[in-house]
Protein: Molybdopterin-dependent oxidoreductase
Organism: Actinacidiphila epipremni
Amino acid sequence: MRYAGKDDHLVGSDMLPPGQRKAHGWPVSHYGPVPRFRPERWNLKVFGATASGTEHVWSFEEFAALPRTTVVADLHCASGTSTTGHEWFGLPATALLELAPPAPQATHVMAWAEYGYNANLRLADFASPRTLLATHHGGQHLTAEHGFPVRLVVPHLYSWKGPKWLRAIEYMTADRRGFWEERGHHNIADPWKEQRYSYQEED
Ligand SMILES: Nc1nc2c(c(=O)[nH]1)N[C@H]1C(S)=C(S)[C@@H](COP(=O)(O)O)O[C@H]1N2
Ligand SMILES: [Mo]
């Protein structure tokens, strides 16, 4: 589906951010091994600066019963390849924020995956109406390589900001850098501004 207009880059389209080229197919890209899914041990947690002061935990079954929606969006890897037109289905971050509200002082979130991979986001980026905790792609469950059972999709940021094998959202009252942000990558990661590296953060 194509949408014309100035918000064209906000939906899945053939338009790519500067310096990106289209990948062939949908290659798998991540650091480290693919974790094994153990349904009885799996849960999704929201912790840190919650409004209630307590953490929220969903089992796999409970999580699967939460409201879900479809978002069409691209993945832009900061190494320069993009894959486009992904039809994601999952829990909107806005719904998670209602189910597990952050404390008023919360300004950032840390998205945590298996094995400690993490990515920090401004609360406003996490709260985008297009941010999704995706469980499905193209009408099918995510594959293990692409993040089963849940991955975070933040369409307006480079895709390292979207952990596959997501396990927790931590609300933070101050910013803290995640895995790639600590290793020379940009703290915000807007692909339309080519915010790839931390040395670009000066201004
Ligand atoms: N848990 C985890 N999630 C991750 C990564 C990772 O190393 N570990 N890599 C990120 C990066 S850099 C990219 S480009 C995308 C790639 O997702 P894909 O393999 O589905 O295209 O996953 C992101 N999510
Ligand atoms: Mo990437």
Q: What stands out?
A: The first strand starts at residue 21 and ends at 22.
